[in-house]
Amino acid sequence: MKFELLIATNGFKGTWRAIEYGAWFAESMRMKVTLLGVAEKLSAAAIDEHHPLEDIFADAVKLFQKAGVEYSLEVRNGEAERVIAERANQGDFITVISPLGRSRLRRWLAGRSLRVLMEQIQGPILYVPEIRLPLKRLLISAGGLGYEVTAEHLAFQLAARARADVTILYVIPPTDLDYPTTRNVLEHVDDLQDTNTVLGRSFKKALEAAQVAGLNAKLITRQGHVVEEILMEVREGNYDMVCMGSHFSAHALRQLYMPNVTAEVAEAANCPVLTVRRMPG
């Protein structure tokens, strides 16, 4: 599948991070860009008024031209979360977003924009709370069951072009279940990729793919609460990007008793987070 970038802004100055990082991403991955501007609360009386989107679009065009990326511009009216999700689901996009500048009251009443968008957008989302360039260290948080394959593929492509080191992280959650699979994992924490288990074979395949791509890659494991351990690794490893993959939607039954790991990590990480929430087609 060949992705294009959909970079979204509602005129809030903080969304410039998505535009700047998206331009770099598109240049690195040789992707076409669609810049989607959402005009919210636009009244008839405001038609002749200067809109913040005008300045952002003007600066974005200069940035895209400097980066040498192919781009198109779109402006739509409506609530940003709804408009962005609708447009994102109309093509094979990686949707690039930053915080939309919502008030604390709105976040409390309607939920964080990121979570709303993750519930609705079918394709990958690149969330940019901060810009971390150049890309030198990339973390892939893997479940080991194949659901992160698309995320790995994109991450390996990006790492190869940025010449970044790659770390694949597997977090072993707390468990009291004495299953053979659980025992195998706990007994082979340091050499999991060498075991003839589903997890072991998955990680071995990922490391082999990284090697074929010419990457310096390694697998590490941690034990504990999944979100806490991922964030601790992000901080301690000083990573410039995190890539995650999950086949669970935010509405899945699993979410009734487990945290939305990708959303919690993205909201707390101090670097861009690429999430891929579907199996490769």
Bin the strand percentage.
Answer: 15-25%
Going by helix content, strand content and strand pairing, the class is: alpha/beta
Multimerization status? single chain
Largest sheet: 10 strands, mixed
Uncertain segments are 247-259
Helicity level: 25-40%
Going by CATH, what is the homologous superfamily of the largest domain?
Answer: HUPs
Q: Determine the N-to-C terminus distance.
A: 8 Å
CATH class category name of the largest domain: Alpha Beta
Overall pLDDT: 84
Our count of helices gives 10
Number of strands: 10
Radius of gyration over all CA atoms, rounded: 20 Å
Question: Could you characterize the architecture of this molecule?
Answer:
- By secondary structure, the chain is of the alpha/beta class.
- It has two domains: 4-127, HUPs (Rossmann fold); 137-276, 3-Layer(aba) Sandwich (Rossmann fold).
- The chain contains ten helices and ten strands.
- It has helices at 16-29, 52-67, 80-88, 104-110, 113-120, 149-162, 180-187, 198-212, 226-237, 261-268, and strands at 4-9, 33-39, 71-77, 93-97, 125-127, 137-141, 165-172, 217-223, 241-245, 273-276.
- Helix 6 (149-162) links the parallel strand 6 (137-141) and strand 7 (165-172).
- Helix 1 (16-29) packs parallel to helix 2 (52-67), helix 3 packs parallel to helix 5 (113-120) and helix 9 (226-237) packs parallel to helix 10.
- Residues 247-259 have low confidence and may be disordered.
Summarize the structure.
This protein has 281 residues and is of the alpha/beta class. It has helices at 16-29, 52-67, 80-88, 104-110, 113-120, 149-162, 180-187, 198-212, 226-237, 261-268, and strands spanning 4-9, 33-39, 71-77, 93-97, 125-127, 137-141, 165-172, 217-223, 241-245, 273-276.
